[in-house]
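[job 0417] fold request received: Response regulator
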Amino acid sequence: MKRILIIEDDPYIAELQRDYFMLHDYTVELCHDGLEGLARARSAEHDLIILDLQLPGVDGFEICRQIRKQLDVPLLIVSAKNEEIDKIRGFGLGADDFVTKPFSPNELVARAKAHLSRYERFTGGKSQEPDTIEIRELSIHKLSRRVFVNAREVAVTAKEFEVLVFLAAHPNRVFNKEELFDKIWGFESSGEIATVTVHISRIREKIEADPSNPQFIETVWGAGYRFTV
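[job 0417] inference complete; emitting structure tokens
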């Protein structure tokens, strides 16, 4: 049974989320304080984390930052903060999705299921494809979810890894932002397309010798992005 950690200071919203996930046979743990939630995320094993941004103790952005330093699980932000800059910041810190309050509990459960399914496809199961993608000085290990540049490991978030693997597995093909968003996030939501640009930028910072002149992930102006081999 999948375990979900919900970090939400509003008891009504937290219990609503819990009840809907329990109806779908998930085990749910609630935390109403940012410090407590961060401690629980670090000390116990969860399959997915749902995080509010405005929390007592420590805010959700900082929790997201700290979680991504040591955990590789789907992380969904659910917040009343709905400015584009908040979404971009959340995605930049490693969130996998951003749901704005008020929200549909059924949609939240559906999004969580989709992220869990995508995560499992990238981490488990047998495949006839080779485990390692090696292109020049870049080495991507799919099963262990590790990335190396010149034999030095670089840390990437779950979604950064998925974007990188998808592009590297389809070399020399151009994908626009909408296509990448649909392939990796899987939701029709034009307001969150900007996360693709954020993730591409962060990947470049980690794998490119000169991010301003990328040799792996190129921008094809007016068309999208292409992984060049």
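[job 0417] notes: The chain has two domains: 2-123, 132-227. The radius of gyration is 18 Å.
[job 0417] exit 0
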